[in-house]
Specification:
Proliferating Cell Nuclear Antigen, 16% helix
């Protein structure tokens, strides 16, 4: 056993990237980890009604070595999605302990700045950086992940300016209870792609009224085309409509006012516009079945959707999808500048060429509220 090759070993030159992705799904204390030839998959869930998936692509690592071990006799290979001869190690680890390990050298500072944006509108202009800013100081920090054998601890080694710290996290055998919330990809009735900051600002604005329910409404030919509403809280209901933007308004159209989210991330009152699709969306497809009519309407527990706020704050784009069963998928695209030290969404580019950012994804899935559950959530006790 001593001469057996390591199952897994990977080296990252920027531990902040790993921390940022894992912190997006840090709402649960434990995560199920699966090592694949293409990267590491982290999955967390809570109450079987919300699931967070973060994939650390092998492109994030300067070195990535994976030697699949021999599969146990009672292990089924078909569930991995790979060939029968390939066994992908799967285990449970403390996600909170892993995050604490990654921020031993103060790696949480830049991410905390992103979280603070949750209370305000994100700026499209990145802050200036110099040799003494936190992103610059993170440039020389490396992280090595090692998983020697089945059942062995997950080893994390951080090195910065000659200081080396190694932590070993106990791994636990997965009980098989971490089952993905199914999204019927062949029964998608709504798909909206937009800048993640616009969704982030809308959810933060609705959160000011402390609602219990997030109501999602989408229609291809009637206003509001795409809207989010917060209901069931102790305060009045609120809504954010992603309206269309046109240069001129038809003379015969009503001048009724409404609150919309504009491209600069601020909300303001704007007159009703002519029919069309929201210009804040890159893709807008709504095809409900005849039983639903022309509009897709689903309710979700607002506190669960808020758990994705960190991912909303750091992502570049978000794909909002819903299937016939009402399962909601929020897939966030996060870009990392792997050639520079600017971190997430950085416009800092090294001299002498064009930097190609590494694209990664974090996926959240939510189970909808049933009609009875939505009615109970909408009941507010004032005393």
């Amino acid at each position: 056993m001593a001469d057996a090759p390591l199952i897994f070993s990977a080296v990252s030159s920027n531990a902040h990237h790993l921390y940022t992705l894992l912190q997006c799904i840090g709402f649960a204390p434990k995560a199920t980890v699966q090592i694949t030839p293409d990267g590491i998959r982290f999955s967390v869930e809570e109450g079987r009604v919300i699931q967070g998936l973060a994939f650390l692509d092998k492109a994030l690592f300067t070195s990535y070595t994976f030697n699949p071990p021999t599969a146990p006799n009672n292990r089924s290979h078909e569930e991995d999605g790979y060939s029968d001869s390939t066994y992908l190690p799967c285990f449970v680890v403390s996600l909170s302990a892993l995050l604490e390990t990654l921020k031993i050298f103060g790696i949480n500072d830049p991410s905390a700045a992103g979280v603070n944006k949750a209370a305000s509108v994100q700026s499209s202009v990145p802050p200036s950086s110099n040799a003494f800013t936190t992103p610059a100081l993170l440039g020389d920090r490396s992280c090595t992940l090692r998983y020697p054998q089945d059942g062995s601890p997950l080893s994390i080694t951080l090195m910065e300016t000659g200081v080396k710290t190694t932590c070993e996290l106990t791994t636990y055998e997965s009980d098989g209870g971490d089952i993905d919330i199914p999204l019927q990809r062949d029964a998608i009735i709504m798909k909206v792609i937009m800048r993640s900051s616009w969704l982030h600002n809308a959810v933060m604005e609705l959160g000011a009224t402390n609602p219990n329910i997030l109501k999602l409404s989408a229609c291809a030919d009637k206003e509001p085309f795409f809207a989010l509403s917060g209901t069931g809280g102790p305060f009045s209901e609120s809504s954010v409509e992603f309206s269309i933007e046109q240069q001129s308004q038809d003379k015969g159209e009503s001048s009724q006012s409404r609150k919309v989210l504009t491209e600069d991330g601020t909300s303001r009152t704007r007159a009703k516009r002519a029919k069309g699709t929201p210009t804040v969306t890159e893709t807008f497809l709504v095809t409900p079945p005849p039983s639903m009519g022309s509009r897709v309407i689903q309710n979700y527990r607002f506190s669960l959707v808020q758990k994705a706020a960190r991912a909303m704050a750091v992502a570049n784009k978000v794909s909002i999808r819903g299937d016939k069963q009402g399962v909601l998928s929020l897939q966030f695209m996060i870009e990392f500048d792997t050639n520079g030290s600017g971190g997430v969404n950085s416009n800092v580019r090294p001299s002498g060429g064009i930097s190609r950012p590494t694209v990664t994804f974090v996926d959240f899935r939510f189970v909808p509220l049933l009609d009875d559950e939505a009615a109970d959530e909408g009941t507010v006790d004032l005393y």
